Amino acid sequence: MEKTKGNEYQRVYSLLKSIPGGKVTTYGAIGKKLCINPRFVGRILSENGHPKEYPCYKVIRSDGNLGGYTLGDANDKNSIVIKKRKLMRDGIELKGDKVPDRFILRKL
After folding, report:
1. For residues 2-27, average pLDDT
2. Which domains does the chain have, with CATH numbers?
3. Which residues are catalytic?
């Protein structure tokens, strides 16, 4: 059965809402859970038009680095500062631009 683009997007966005407070997950963990490529997960998140409803800032790279964060049409240094602030507001400690492993959900 062929999956529609909208269906893949909705599956990723729905999974975002299940990430508990004080935790983040990875592009790879989402990809594995939904059987899609982690790079496609990143693309879907970069097109998130409702970041308040679907907290894409809670997704990081598998090595603990923050990865990107897109606000509107820009993915610049200011947007990564906003991602850091949101994570810290959620109780996530940062070591530079990395999230310590104890905050990362690697299996969803």
Report:
1. 88
2. 5-102 (1.10.10.10)
3. 56
